[in-house]
């Protein structure tokens, strides 16, 4: 997607290293960083220099190319793979990408591991970008349908966190239909949840939408229900970090509350995801999906920019108050209107999901 008019992906190979956009610096500065070792890749994922399910998977894919270069035995390769998998627990794309790399290396033999891992890493990234583009085409029809029922009026879409191109390799999942609708000339406006504690909505989604010229408004996290009660939200689209075979959705903390409000107000609630985000081994998301808990300081502090342009962190809690930081929650399938995947749109039911994805039948 465009940054100041120049097309970018979120990750690419640069000489013998992996180049990323450091998302901890956005929106105040656009900086790229080169990762040279598996340890640097693991730290970039853990500290959220890269984040978002699809991009975490693509980064782990490239990390395995570095692992193939660092490892001199299959055992060392497995240890390095494990060091990537344990960085963040909820987004299943991470372990999916690492296991895909391990299987590919096993198939062609350890001797060919470096060239093979490079090809697989590029394939994972290219497929992620292609899947998001297809999600955009399928999701566009949902927005077009809503637009046709309110001719001449703006379609208001609410999104949570950042499931934009910054969370993938390109296009994004939740944002792909939004960008497609904007490109098709459908008048749209996006309500962007700020998404405490790390403010991925306010910092990343709003920045992305502004770069692409999409009209949007940032709202405090608890605003969505009020807007829905007053007819100001036509559609909710979020991304996902892991979706079970029966359609339960793990996504950024607060997604569940938006789904409850949407259901109560008759607002369609769609989740957009590539098939690498399905966990075919799980049915019950509330019981089965591991929910990451991050450091309390992310809740206790906020980062911002001063009038003079320097980025500063301030504490917003009194010293005596502890904080808890649950990074994700699970929205049960019954609250999801539909899933927008690269293979089409389907209801969030096991039957519909598995009929779009025949590979699911052998996984459980
Ligand atoms: O903690 P993050 O920023 O990695 O979480 C991102 C989200 O929850 C996104 O909404 C999600 O990854 C879905 S889109 C890839």
TrEMBL record:
Pfam families registered for this protein in UniProt: IF-2B (PF01008)
GO biological process, one term: L-methionine salvage from methylthioadenosine
Pathway: Amino-acid biosynthesis; L-methionine biosynthesis via salvage pathway; L-methionine from S-methyl-5-thio-alpha-D-ribose 1-phosphate: step 1/6
Catalytic activity: 5-(methylsulfanyl)-alpha-D-ribose 1-phosphate = 5-(methylsulfanyl)-D-ribulose 1-phosphate
Residues involved in substrate binding: 51-53, 88, 200, 251-252
Enzyme class: isomerase
GO molecular function term, any single one: S-methyl-5-thioribose-1-phosphate isomerase activity
Coiled-coil stretches: none
Annotated site, Transition state stabilizer, chain positions: 161
Catalytic residues (positions): 241
Family: Belongs to the EIF-2B alpha/beta/delta subunits family. MtnA subfamily.
Function: Catalyzes the interconversion of methylthioribose-1-phosphate (MTR-1-P) into methylthioribulose-1-phosphate (MTRu-1-P).
Protein name as catalogued: Methylthioribose-1-phosphate isomerase
Organism: Prosthecobacter dejongeii
The organism's taxonomic lineage, starting at the top: Bacteria, Pseudomonadati, Verrucomicrobiota, Verrucomicrobiia, Verrucomicrobiales
